Amino acid sequence: MSVNPPHPDAAADPSRSAGAVPRVAILGATGKMGRYAVPAVREAEGLELVAELGSRDPLQAVLDAGATHVLDLTVPDASPENVAFAVENGLHAVVGTSGWVPQRRARLQEQLAQHPGVGVVIAPNFSVGSVLATAFAAKAARFFESVEVVELHHPAKLDAPSGTAVRTAEMIAASRAEAGVGPSPDATERDPDGARGAVVDGVHVHAVRLRGLEAHQEVLLGGPGEQLTVRHDAFDRGAYMPGVVLALWSVASRPGLTYGLDGLLGLD
Fold first, then answer.
1. Rounded mean pLDDT, 81-92
2. Quick one: 169 and 113 in the same domain?
3. 16: which of 10, 35, 110, 221 fits an S-S bond (Cβ 3.0–4.6 Å)?
4. Is 87 in the same domain as 153?
5. Inter-residue contact 231 to 152 (CB < 8 Å)
């Protein structure tokens, strides 16, 4: 697998400009994402894979391997402990695990304040295309009266709505609030079965779980006499690897918490 993501200038990334190669330990290396991440990190220019940990391996193995960076691809219940361990030991962390709700991020920021040289990147989605689609939709949403989000995934996905859809809705809501755009018109008075979907910051989000799908999202924007659809499709987890590598390259130059791949692509 060859991964060639866009990467920051060496001058903007001390670890690259100084010639220091990030030494990466992957947590969740045997999982669905981990099986793609292991060869991607191993083959990426300027990264060194030093440890591959499964769910039952002790975190001490990360330190024993001499890692400088941790890539967490585990599960929501384990991820906060893994990241806290990394920060406490001065290791940079890149996180692709869901479940990082605002309360968890706030606790992490408190910990990072005690370790000012450590960087953590948490990405609801590592797909460059997906991040771009969300950014485009957020910019467009201020120009349309109506907006809704539909996310479609495989039936083995554990959370709904997806983290990507939640972040998309949050960014859309922030964009519309900044522009003074009111809520989407909706005359619904009765919805006992939740047919109108979840509501995230005032934006309706609908989740589909269907065999044959991987990861897909549509943002539907409507105005008088027209509709704009912004859609992204990921057909396998290889789509996330350029973003993973980019985050591992960049995290050392971004102390504190970076939430979303947006900042690494210059979109925020």
1. 98
2. no
3. 10
4. no
5. no
